[in-house]
Amino acid sequence: MKNLKLILAAMTALCVMTACGGNTDSTADTSAETASETVQAEETEAEEAQASEETSAEETTEEATEEDSSSEEDAEDDENYNTGDASLDNVRNQDEIGENELLAVSFGTSFNDSRRLTIGAIENDLETAFPDYSVRRGFTANIVIDHVQKRDGILIDDLNAALQRAADNGVKNLVIQPTHLMNGLEYDEIVDTAANYSDAFDKVVFGAPLLTSDDDFDRVAKAITDWTSEYDDGETAICFMGHGTEADSNSVYSKMQDTLTNMGFANYYVGTVEAAPSLDDVLAKVKEGNYKRVVLEPLMVVAGDHANNDMAGDEDGSWKTTFENEGYEVVCLLRGLGENEAIRQIYVDHAQAAIDSLNS
Fold it and tell me: What is the 3-state secondary structure (H, E, C) of 130-159?
C-alpha cells in the first residue's frame, strides 16, 4: 500500500520598519516652538492612548462577563438535560490493542443513550464479526468530545488521539471503518488525517461509508421501509430527515428518494436540515397527497441534537411543528439508523471488504 502524505506549508511574514527624519531650522526660537509643539503632541497622543486602553479594558471585561454568564447558563442547561447514563457506553479507548485494529470513526453525539444504541451497536457488531481485530473508537467532532468530557467526565478519543494510540500500541494492520453516511467532506478529512500516521503502520485500509454503491442504496431503502412498515397504511407520509451538506455528495439524498420511489414507496420522502431537499420541499410533496398522518424519522446514524430539536422539537420551525401547523397528525420516531440491524450489517460488510483488501 502506498503511504498517504499530508504536506503542511508554513508562511513567514517579513516586517520592515523605516525611520524618517526632517530638516532642522537654524533659528533658535523656531526650534523651541517646534520642540514645544512636539511635546504637546506627544502628551495628547499619550492621553488618547491611555483613554483608548481604558475603554478597551472595560469592553474586554464586559465581554468576558457576558461569556462567563453564557457559560454558566450552558452549564445549568447541561445539568437539567438528561440524555442517558454515559457510564453504560463503552468508549473503546483501551490500550493493549495487538497487531490488528479496526478503528470505527464516527462524527459522534453527546446524547448518551443514542450513542450507545447506535455507534456502540455498530462497534459491537464489528467486534463480533472480526474477533481477530481489536475494535476501537474515534470521533471527528471535538465539540462533542469536549461536551461529554465536561458534562459526564468521560473522555472519548478524537481521530488524532485514536491514531496515536494505535501507533503507540504497535498496531501493524489498521482498518478504518467510518460510520458516516456518505463519501463527503468529513470522509476526506479522515483519509487526510490518517495520512499523517501512515508510516506508523504496515498497512492501512479504509472501509466505505454507508451509502456508496447502488447495492447500498437498495439495502438501506429496504431496511428503512421494513423498519416503518407498520405505519405504511396508505394514509401516512413517512419522511426521513438527513443532515445535508454543501458538497457534491449531498446528491445521496435525491438518489435515496429516487431509489424509494422506484421501489414503489411513493409515500416515502427524504429531506435535509441544511441543504436540499429542504423541509419546504418535503412539505410541498406531502401536501400533494391525501395524507392524514406524517411519520418523521432521522436519516442519520444517531438520534442526536438534529433529531431531537430540528425534527421533533416543539419550537416553531421544527419539522414536527411545521407539519402540525398544516393539520397533520405527527409521529416522531427518535431512533438513529445505527439501531437498525440491517443497516449495521452494511457497515460490517464494508469492513469485511476492507479487510479482504489487506491481502490483495
Answer: CCCCEEEEEECCHHHHHHHHHHHCCCCCEH
Which of 95, 87, 168, 109 minimizes the C-alpha distance to 303? 109
Q: What are phi and psi of 296, to 5 degrees?
A: -115, 135
Of the chain, the end-to-end C-alpha distance in Å amounts to: 10
Distances (CA, A) of 93 to 131, 137, 161, 200, 338: 17, 7, 9, 18, 20
- Name the least confident of 21-30, 39-48, 262-271: 21-30
Residue 69 Cα distances to 53, 56, 66, 75, angstroms: 24, 20, 5, 10
Question: Residues 300, 244: contact at Cβ < 8 Å?
Answer: no
The number of beta carbons lying within 10 Å of the beta carbon of residue 269 is 22
Distance (Å, rounded) from C-alpha 207 to C-alpha 183? Answer: 11
Looking at residue 12, what is its pLDDT?
Answer: 31
Whole-model pTM: value is 0.79
State the DSSP string of 72-96. Answer: HHHHHHHHT-----GGGS-----S-
What are the pLDDT digits (tens) for 95-145?
A: 999 999 999 999 999 999 999 999 999 999 999 999 999 999 999 999 999
Establish whether the linkage from the previous residue to 178 is cis, with ω within 30° of 0: no
What's the mean per-residue pLDDT of the chain? Answer: 84
Rounded Cα distance between 130 and 124, Å, is: 10
Residues known to be catalytic: 243
Residue 56 in 3-state DSSP?
A: helix
Q: Confirm if 59 and 51 have CB atoms less than 8 A apart.
A: no
Q: Answer for the pair 141, 200: CB distance below 8 angstroms, yes or no.
A: no
pLDDT, position 82 = 84
- For the stretch 320-348, pLDDT in tens is 999 999 999 999 999 999 999 999 999 99
The total of other beta-carbon atoms located within 10 Å of residue 352's CB is 16
